[in-house]
Structure formats: structure tokens, C-alpha cells
């Protein structure tokens, strides 16, 4: 079992975010100690890892909540979850292709300006030597 502080350290999430995820039913079944403190299980940690993965790849919290609700319903929702993940995967791939195009453009500009900088520095050196 993990305390909220340990979960924050392991995930990089804030305590506020963890409580928000619980309130929004993304992670609704967090256990409590006899003193009422949150206790996160390994299963909770796996769920958080999935939530973070989906969020970091652009899925909205509303869609994540829907996905997590389907997961709680069990195997009868496997098809719906697969469809959600397939659609999300396609979206991620499209954004990756777009980012690759942007990276290619940035790289070309960097190469251009790097060559210009070398030429400029050589010109300045020539002027200083004359």
C-alpha cells in the first residue's frame, strides 16, 4: 500500500490531482486506513499509470473517465474499450506524424541558420584579420 505522498513521488502528480481524479471517478475505489488516510494499492498505481498515459497522449479527462468506468464494468465492455483505444491510437499517430513534419521543418531551419552562422563568423574573422 502507498500513501498519497508516496504516490505523488512515484507519479509526479500532486495530491490535489489525485483527489480530483478520485472525485471525478477516474480512480474511485481508493482504500482508506483505519485513520481515514488514502491507501493506494498496486492496482491503483496501474490504473494511475493508464490514466496518465491516456492524458499525456491527449485523451480528455471526460473520455478517460468513460474508459475507466467501462473497465470497472468488466469484460462485457471489452469491445467498447478496444474501440476507444483504437480511435485514440489513430489520433496519437496522426499527431505524431504532424509533429514529425514540424520537427523536419525545424531541423531544416536549424541546418540553414547553422550554415549561415558559420559563414557569418568566417566573414567576421576575415574582416578582423584584414
Number of helices: 5
The largest sheet is: 2 strands, antiparallel
Stretches where pLDDT is under 50 for at least 5 consecutive residues are: none
CATH class of the largest domain: Mainly Alpha
Which CATH architecture of the largest domain would you pick? Orthogonal Bundle
Question: Which keywords apply here?
Answer:
5 helices; 2 strands; 130 residues; 2 domains; mainly alpha
Descriptive notes:
There is one protein chain. The chain is mainly alpha-helical. It folds into two domains: 1-73, Multidrug-efflux Transporter Regulator, Chain: A, Domain 2 (Orthogonal Bundle); 89-130. Helix content is 75%, strand content 3%. It has five helices and two strands. It has helices at 4-11, 15-23, 42-56, 61-73, 78-129, and strands at residues 31-32, 38-39. The chain has a two-stranded antiparallel sheet with strand order 1-2. The radius of gyration is 24 Å and the shape is elongated. The N and C termini lie far apart (74 Å).
Amino acid at each position: 500500500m502507498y500513501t498519497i505522498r508516496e504516490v505523488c513521488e512515484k507519479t509526479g502528480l500532486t495530491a490535489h490531482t489525485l483527489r480530483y481524479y478520485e472525485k471525478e471517478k477516474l480512480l474511485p475505489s481508493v482504500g482508506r486506513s483505519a485513520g481515514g488516510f488514502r491507501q493506494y494499492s498496486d492496482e491503483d498505481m496501474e490504473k494511475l499509470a493508464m490514466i496518465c498515459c491516456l492524458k499525456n497522449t491527449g485523451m480528455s479527462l471526460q473520455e478517460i473517465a468513460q474508459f475507466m468506468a467501462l473497465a470497472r464494468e468488466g469484460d462485457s465492455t471489452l469491445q467498447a474499450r478496444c474501440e476507444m483505444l483504437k480511435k485514440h491510437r489513430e489520433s496519437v499517430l496522426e499527431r505524431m506524424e504532424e509533429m514529425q513534419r514540424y520537427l523536419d521543418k525545424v531541423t531544416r531551419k536549424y541546418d540553414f541558420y547553422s550554415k549561415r552562422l558559420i559563414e557569418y563568423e568566417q566573414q567576421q574573422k576575415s574582416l578582423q584579420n584584414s
